[in-house]
């Protein structure tokens, strides 16, 4: 159950944070993973390869049609299939709305939302031809809760849910499901810079009384990326320890 043996998965933004957790869980489940990132993903590839995982790094900017097309062509050439697309890459450019610049707005929309147009467009023809596919994208708890300084990010993460609910209606007939994961408070390089007492206070608000780990997200993505989730389509899986019970 929940094995990905023989399958090829693209994980965007795999060079750090949650993406690393997804790469680890997917390779442990037997997938061959194409780690896409603008940052250097080779250290993650080396670590996972040393543990016996099948993974390779492609330097890809998910906002660029050319960059994505070249990487997809290379995967199809070498591995002949793409079963899973995980749209995990994302950025923040936090600023209170009145101070937010157009560049900060556009950067977040470009990386977080336009990227889904670019990656799904490139990958879907191969999934449709195969009659099978899984697309899972990163939303956020802040799409529902909102957060001070995150009008751009909150709008982008809510847009991902809208994209998911519409695309799922178009491609379900080809054996392709489209879902998202909305992570809560997850331990990454970003949260490591937050003072310990603030983290402790935040953890008190999480019913399971702990911060989420990248591997927790890996398992959430694994479920939606698996063959076994074939009747789950268009949903947002809230992975937040109960902070936003739905
Ligand atoms: P992160 O910043 O640690 O990692 C994101 C990765 O995406 C980086 O390696 C970065 O280089 C890459 N990236 C950025 N722009 C890119 C581009 N144009 N092309 C390719 N790669 C690009 O982020 P994270 O905290 O691990 O979060 C991963 C995803 O989960 C994001 O979409 C984020 O919005 C979402 N999320 C995170 C949390 C959290 O608590 N960490 C909570 C909710 C949602």
Write the layout of secondary structure elements.
Blueprint: E1 8-12, H1 18-28, E2 32-37, H2 42-50, E3 54-59, H3 65-79, E4 84-87, H4 102-130, E5 133-138, H5 141-145, H6 151-171, E6 176-183, H7 189-192, H8 196-204, H9 214-225, E7 236-239
Parallel strand pairs: 1-2, 1-4, 2-3, 4-5, 5-6, 6-7
Helix pairs in contact: 1-9, 3-4, 4-6
Bound molecules: nicotinamide-adenine-dinucleotide.
Nicotinamide-adenine-dinucleotide is lined by residues 12-13, 15-19, 36-39, 60-63, 88-91, 111, 138, 140-141, 183, 185-186, 188-190.
Describe the protein in words.
This protein has a single domain, classed as NAD(P)-binding Rossmann-like Domain (Rossmann fold), CATH 3.40.50.720. It has helices at residues 18-28, 42-50, 65-79, 102-130, 141-145, 151-171, 189-192, 196-204, 214-225, and strands spanning 8-12, 32-37, 54-59, 84-87, 133-138, 176-183, 236-239. Helix 1 crosses helix 9 (214-225). Strand 4, helix 4 (102-130) and strand 5 form a beta-alpha-beta unit. It is 47% helix and 16% strand. Strands 3-2-1-4-5-6-7 form a seven-stranded parallel beta sheet, sandwiched between helices. The mean pLDDT is 97. The chain has 246 residues and is α/β, with parallel strands linked by helices. It is built from nine helices and seven strands, in the order E-H-E-H-E-H-E-H-E-H-H-E-H-H-H-E. The longest helix is centred in the middle third of the chain and has 29 residues, at 102-130. Bound molecules: nicotinamide-adenine-dinucleotide. Nicotinamide-adenine-dinucleotide binds at residues 12-13, 15-19, 36-39, 60-63, 88-91, 111, 138, 140-141, 183, 185-186, 188-190.
């Amino acid at each position: 159950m929940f094995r990905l043996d023989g399958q090829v998965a693209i994980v965007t933004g795999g060079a750090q944070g949650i993406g690393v957790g997804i790469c680890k869980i997917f390779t442990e489940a037997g997938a061959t993973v194409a780690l896409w990132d603008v940052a250097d993903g080779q250290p993650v590839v080396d670590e996972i390869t040393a543990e016996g995982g099948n993974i390779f790094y492609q330097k890809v900017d998910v906002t660029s049609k050319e960059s994505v097309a070249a990487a997809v062509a290379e995967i199809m050439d070498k591995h002949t299939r793409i079963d899973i697309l995980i749209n995990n890459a994302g950025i923040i450019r936090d600023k209170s709305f009145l101070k937010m610049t157009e560049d900060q707005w556009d950067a977040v929309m470009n990386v977080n939302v336009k990227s889904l147009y670019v990656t799904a467009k490139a990958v879907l023809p191969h999934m449709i031809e195969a009659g099978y596919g899984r697309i899972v994208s990163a939303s956020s708890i802040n799409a529902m809760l909102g957060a001070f300084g995150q009008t751009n990010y909150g709008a982008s993460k809510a847009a991902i849910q809208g994209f998911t609910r519409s695309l799922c209606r178009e491609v379900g007939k080809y054996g392709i499901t489209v879902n998202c994961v909305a992570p809560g408070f997850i331990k990454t390089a970003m949260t490591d810079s937050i003072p310990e007492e603030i983290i402790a206070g935040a953890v008190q608000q999480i019913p399971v009384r702990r911060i989420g780990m990248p591997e927790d997200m890996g398992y959430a993505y694994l479920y939606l990326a698996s063959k076994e989730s074939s009747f789950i389509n268009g949903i947002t899986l809230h992975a937040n320890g109960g902070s936003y019970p739905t």
